[in-house]
Q: What sequence folds into this?
């Protein structure tokens, strides 16, 4: 809740902290002073600051993000149109990251347990390090050079059915999957070292059951906690990747808006993205609470 | 005795570690060179416009093609190094300076600290890119704005790490001392705290320069960073992307530059932290140690009444710098069905590892070696296809039941698994068995316990559950590894009785491991005493307690007070230490602490041989104690007269080479 309030205050305060007159900047040097004054009045920027803050909070709660300075269209409508597209990239990417990182990290942990498999460990650390160092927008560019320009196998831009998801999702997934699988490996190594896994081995439980039922639930807690940070980074990653592929999400909106100094739009998009991140952290916390039997004492 | 392939010593590894830094260092050097020289060398082709050559693809003259104005893109990429790196370093320094300042405040002052760290926490929840966009809007577009933005976005991260480090340092005594001396907080922070946290903060900065390059390029890529006519890699990349169909090289050149730069600083950071930590990780020889054991005994056949047979068992771990540790050096014993053998020894004697070796729980890099290691009719040294039998017939109870039960899994699941998997029972049958097993270990209300998790049970209850799990198969051998050590004294006895009863009821053989000879005596038919990885004495419990033959056993028995112990006389204590697992001695490992030791003992290893006149009493000692008053014996009336140690054991007339 506190985070949400800070987020709201920050997006609200942004327009007031900008040096100079934001309206004049947005309208460009050719705008006449009366026009600037009129727009300022329309946007309510000439009222006392607390009044503005209150009405801003009120507007946000009722999902009114104001109007774009440049296009004068409703920001809420724009976000409602575009945000689902962003989620359509982020959600599959999110799922794919988890689905990839858990088994990869776990498997590598098993192979490198107790200091064996040094080659495997080096290869894993090296490869994930490399993949992690490639920023998503660069990867997106490279992918489109290879698959769109070179092989002409996939569509270059926009949302043209399932095939156009392939590249943006890959670009989003690779980095986070690499770093999450690193974390998973470290966490899994800790769990594999515990006495209860030794006990499970002493009972000769088959491998799949041992790792699936005995190891996984115990490492999910820590992995998800770190994972939530990585995954909120993924939300931000969509901004860049959308720009590479001309994806009609909020990412393309915000980069245009920033260049055009369209502050209400920037405010709205940042608010929505920020709130999404907060919401995901909340969900992760809730999931963790459900998974961890220690927090359910007395419930049974 | 043992020939072990030793790995090259530490020096080679150190060199390898230094060498690992060569790649990032060379790359860094290259980037620094480009920063300085690129604008001079390639400044012309990078800025000179040749409209006639505009928008070309990759060619011999222009490896990465040209842009709209005919400028060479490769040259521009190289020249852009200066801008990209310089801005990244600036942003990191800025974020670092502000962040470290905030972190110092948060870490050293309590009231202000709480506020600062609350803000840091909130900011950390947001991805750096969103923060940078936010700040980029605030500070305006362009180089200055983006440096400020990225710097600001880095601040919370720096503040957090500084705060954590500071908090650790602040707790130390010298800070308290400085405070008592009346130093002001600022001076304490600068003089005492900063130097102590400098190293990790610098490391963090190094890695963050890489991140800064990526973030700044990202901002420029979005058009929020460096503005034309200036350019950096991100700008070039986004320009290149618009013309990716004409010349892929236009996008590739800056993309490669960004990745390479990011990678360089990442590798640099990891290498530095490796150097600082001086990690000893994975200091292992390449293959499993090659071990050969001399002193082979002939197998006397007839495995009929034998549940478990262990002959010359060794457990070997590769140690630091190519050395070898042998926590279990030579262990031999035999266990018949229904029999109970106790293994006693102080910590580090190798008794628990012996149990692990039998249960096949020694992990690589550790290696198990034995002349014979048989359970039922299985050769345990052959690791193939024994899981089913072991899971069904061998059960293990561990020292700390709280650790041995999986916190995420219900008690019931623990119980069901062995029956369903190893015996193939359907779930209802397995559940009925589980209830029976819980009842058998005297747990009331099994249906309720069945549904609970381990944290809802008491320590004694957990150990009962662990024993019940062991009962779910058809155990022929129960290995109990210090099963009462972690429990309350009041519960210990109950569990002990339970284990003894379970052993009787199921007719299973039992291996009971403990450091407490009194506990072992209560449960076991026979006792084996371990010291420094050797079985030094083995005898029926009563025989051993009445007349220990090994000086170490004698001390162990004497040190364990009973009702008849003289309460005035001090308990005997032992000077010195047990030889460590990596020590390699030619003689008896106890000689160093033994009151009876002589030159023979330090020069020759005593084998475990049967004592004349006693069927089941074996000892590994050149000068064993004899008679009923053995504990006080000074070594004068020794029936096992030994001749000066020049000959080998086979000629010793009073002892026989004993099959176990």
A:
């Amino acid at each position: 809740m506190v985070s949400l309030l800070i987020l709201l205050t920050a997006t609200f305060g942004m327009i007031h902290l900008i040096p100079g007159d934001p309206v004049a900047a947005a309208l460009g040097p050719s705008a006449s002073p009366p026009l600037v004054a009129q727009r300022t009045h329309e946007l309510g920027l000439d009222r006392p600051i607390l009044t503005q803050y209150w009405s801003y909070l009120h507007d946000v709660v009722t999902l009114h993000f104001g109007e774009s300075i440049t296009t004068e269209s409703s920001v809420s409508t724009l976000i409602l149109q575009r945000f689902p597209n962003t989620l359509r990239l982020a959600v599959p990417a999110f799922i794919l990251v988890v689905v990839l990182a858990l088994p990869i990290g776990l498997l590598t942990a098993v192979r490198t347990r107790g200091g064996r498999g040094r080659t495997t460990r080096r290869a894993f650390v090296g490869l994930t390090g490399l993949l992690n160092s490639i920023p998503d927008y660069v990867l997106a560019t490279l992918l489109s050079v290879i698959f769109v320009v070179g092989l002409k196998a996939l569509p270059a831009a926009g949302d043209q059915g399932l095939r156009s998801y392939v590249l943006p999702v890959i670009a989003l997934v690779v980095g986070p999957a690499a770093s999450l699988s690193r974390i998973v490996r470290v966490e899994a190594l800790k769990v594999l070292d515990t006495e209860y896994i030794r006990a499970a081995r002493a009972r000769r439980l088959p491998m799949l059951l041992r790792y699936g039922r005995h190891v996984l639930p115990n490492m999910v807690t820590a992995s998800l906690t770190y994972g939530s940070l990585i995954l909120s980074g993924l939300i931000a990653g969509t901004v860049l990747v959308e720009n590479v592929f001309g994806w009609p999400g909020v990412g393309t909106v915000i980069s245009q808006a920033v260049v055009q100094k369209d502050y209400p739009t920037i405010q709205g998009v940042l608010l929505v993205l920020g709130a999404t991140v907060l919401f995901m952290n909340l969900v992760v916390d809730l999931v963790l609470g459900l998974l961890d039997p220690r927090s359910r004492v007395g419930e049974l | 005795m043992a020939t072990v392939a030793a790995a090259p010593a530490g020096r080679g590894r150190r060199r390898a570690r230094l060498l690992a830094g060569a790649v990032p260092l060379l790359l860094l050097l290259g980037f620094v060179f480009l920063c300085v020289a690129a604008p001079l060398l390639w400044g012309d082709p990078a800025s000179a416009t040749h409209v006639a050559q505009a928008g070309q693809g990759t060619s011999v003259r222009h490896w990465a093609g040209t842009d709209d104005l005919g400028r060479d893109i490769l040259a521009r990429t190289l020249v852009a190094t200066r801008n990209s790196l310089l801005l990244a370093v600036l942003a990191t320094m800025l974020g670092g300076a502000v962040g470290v300042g905030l972190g110092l405040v948060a870490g050293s002052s309590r009231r202000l600290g709480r506020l600062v760290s609350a803000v840091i926490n909130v900011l950390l929840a947001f991805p750096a890119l969103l923060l940078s966009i936010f700040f980029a809007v605030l500070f305006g577009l362009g180089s200055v704005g983006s440096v400020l933005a990225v710097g600001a976005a880095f601040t919370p991260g720096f503040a957090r790490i500084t705060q954590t480090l500071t908090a650790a340092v602040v707790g130390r005594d010298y800070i308290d001392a400085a405070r008592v001396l009346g130093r002001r907080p600022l001076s304490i922070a600068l003089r005492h705290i900063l130097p102590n946290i400098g190293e990790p903060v610098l490391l963090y900065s190094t890695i963050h320069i890489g991140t800064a390059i990526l973030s700044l390029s990202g901002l420029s890529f979005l058009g929020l960073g460096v503005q034309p006519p200036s350019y950096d890699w991100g700008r070039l990349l986004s320009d290149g992307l618009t013309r990716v169909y004409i010349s892929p090289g236009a996008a590739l050149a800056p993309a490669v530059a960004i990745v390479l730069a990011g990678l360089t600083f990442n590798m640099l950071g990891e290498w530095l932290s490796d150097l600082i930590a001086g990690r000893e990780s994975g200091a292992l020889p390449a293959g499993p140690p090659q071990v050969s054991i001399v002193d082979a005994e002939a197998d006397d056949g007839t495995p009929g009444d034998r549940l478990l047979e262990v002959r010359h068992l060794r457990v070997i771990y590769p140690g630091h710098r190519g050395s070898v540790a042998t926590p279990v050096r030579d262990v031999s014993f035999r266990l018949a069905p229904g029999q109970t053998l106790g293994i006693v020894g102080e910590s580090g004697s190798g008794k628990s590892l012996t149990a692990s070796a039998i249960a096949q729980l020694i992990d690589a890099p550790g290696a198990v070696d034995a002349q014979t290691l048989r359970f039922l009719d299985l050769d345990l040294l052959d690791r193939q296809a024994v899981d089913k039998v072991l899971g069904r017939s061998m059960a293990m109870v561990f020292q700390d039941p709280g650790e041995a039960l999986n916190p995420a899994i219900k008690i019931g699941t623990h119980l069901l698994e062995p029956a369903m998997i190893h015996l193939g029972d359907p779930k209802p049958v397995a559940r009925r068995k589980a209830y029976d097993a819980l009842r058998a270990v005297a747990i009331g209300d099994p249906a309720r316990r069945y549904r609970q998790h381990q944290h809802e049970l008491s320590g004694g209850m957990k150990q009962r559950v662990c024993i019940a799990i062991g009962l779910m198969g058809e155990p022929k051998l129960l290995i109990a590894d210090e099963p009462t050590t972690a429990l309350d004294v009041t519960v210990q006895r109950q569990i002990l009785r339970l284990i003894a009863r379970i052993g009787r009821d199921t007719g299973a053989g039992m291996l009971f491991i403990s450091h407490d000879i009194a506990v072992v005596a209560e449960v076991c038919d026979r006792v084996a005493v371990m010291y420094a990885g050797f079985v030094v004495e083995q005898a029926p419990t009563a025989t051993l307690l009445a007349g220990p033959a090994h000086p170490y056993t004698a001390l162990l028995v004497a040190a364990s007070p009973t009702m008849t112990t003289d309460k005035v006389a001090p308990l005997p204590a032992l000077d010195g230490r047990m030889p460590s697992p990596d020590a390699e001695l030619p003689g008896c490992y106890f000689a160093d602490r033994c009151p009876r030791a002589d030159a023979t003992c330090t020069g020759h290893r005593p084998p475990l041989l049967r004592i004349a006149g006693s069927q089941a009493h074996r000892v590994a000692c050149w000068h064993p104690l004899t008679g009923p008053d053995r504990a006080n014996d000074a070594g004068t009336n020794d029936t096992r007269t030994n001749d000066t140690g020049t000959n080998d054991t086979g000629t010793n007339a009073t002892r026989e080479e004993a099959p176990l």
